[in-house]
Amino acid sequence: MTTADEYTDRAYVSRYGAAEFGLRVMRDGAPGDADGPVTAQLLSDGASPQEIFSREAEHPATGEYTVRLSSRETSAPGPYVLVWTYVVNGQEEEWRVWLEVGKAAPEYDVLTEEMKGVIEQTWTRFSDLFDYATEGPHLQTYIQSNFGRNRLAQLLRIAVGRLNTVAQPFQTYTIDGDGGASFPVAKWGSLLESALYVECLRHLVRSYVEQPEVQSGSGVSRLDRRDYKDRWEDVLGVEEPVLKQQLEHFKIANMGLGRARVLVSGGVYGRWGPTRLPLSHAARPRWLTRMY
Predict the structure, then answer these.
(1) What are 234-254's pLDDT values in tens digits?
(2) Do the domain assignments include residue 291?
(3) Which is it for strands 64-69 and 58-61: parallel, antiparallel or unpaired?
(4) In angstroms, rounded to a whole number, what is the distance separating the alpha carbons of residues 292 and 274?
(5) H-helix or E-strand containing 11?
């Protein structure tokens, strides 16, 4: 029997990746310690859960507790649940975090936490697709496909390169600071998410180009999924104008001309001025806050 927890949103950890999670306990609006030690337990998530580890969490600051998963503990892909148990005001408390250990993603692992945040925000846009229950587009079911966070990390580099060169001024931003300045995610994260999303849509359009028609009879039959290419192109056509509008602000802001304005009917409107677009993303460790 399928349960809702099987399809819940899960924090992602790549295979053999070392991930750190944190619990922040708040008392009366301020960080406050639990009554005693906080225990973190990692379990496989299924009909017969198996314990991977159970240990006391680290306590780096008042009200803050952390646990780090080693590469050995993330060596087996699959769904997991991280269970925090502790006592507050004499009352036993529990908090659960659902995790997914996915494919090894070395290019994803080396990204900064800001860039991983961009990946996660973009991945969210593909997380509710109909075709495949756990990992998005129908492409996932084919052996040749590796559509996942590692592929998004590769497309992220392409997206930043396109932002650098698509219009004046020419820029040299990178995703890791190697050979140029690291892309300013704190200020322009929303633009980068849009650019990566559009790059993913282009990738899906390319991926469906060679899907064959149905060939029935004595041979092996195949479904005609070429219509998927047309549908993804429709989505791409909706998203590209949004990216273009954001890109105009980004390029003008990087021309060093100050804050541009347009005078309309005697009033000043900042349609062409730079806009701060903050990005909400997970920090390291990934904090969960409980209020008491």
Answers:
(1) 888 888 888 888 888 888 887
(2) no
(3) antiparallel
(4) 40
(5) strand 11-14
Alpha-carbon span 36 to 62, nearest angstrom: 12
Q: Which is nearest to 248 in space by CA: 171, 176, 191, 182?
A: 191
Please indicate, yes or no, whether residues 55 and 88 belong to a single structural domain of this protein: yes
Q: Are 111 and 176 in contact (CB under 8 A)?
A: yes
Per-residue buried b or exposed e for 253-262, using 16+ beta carbons within 10 Å of the residue's own CB: bbeeeeeeee
- In this prediction the pTM is 0.59
C-alpha 53/C-alpha 40 separation (Å) is: 8
Identify whether residues 137 and 215 lie together within a single domain: yes
Residue 289 counted as domain residue: no
Query: Pick from 69, 45, 8: which is nearest to 285 by CA?
Result: 69
Pairwise pLDDT comparison (64 vs 269), residue with the higher score: 64
CA pair distance 193, 252, nearest whole angstrom: 19
Amino acid 206: pLDDT: 80
Confidence at residue 26, expressed as pLDDT on a 0 to 100 scale: 92
- In this structure, the answer to whether residues 162 and 88 fall within a common structural domain is no
Phi, psi (rounded to 5 degrees) for 263: -90, 120
Report yes or no on 281 lying in a domain.
no
Residues in the chain: 292
Written as six digits, the tokens of 33 are 């310690």
DSSP element (H, E) containing 152: helix 149-165
Asked whether the beta carbons of 64 and 72 are under 8 A apart, the reply is no
Task: Tell me which DSSP letter residue 63 carries.
Answer: T
Q: What is the DSSP letter of 18?
A: -
Task: Write out pLDDT tens, residues 167-197.
Answer: 888 888 888 766 668 888 888 888 999 999 9
Domain that holds residue 61: 4-104
How many domains, the chain?
A: 2
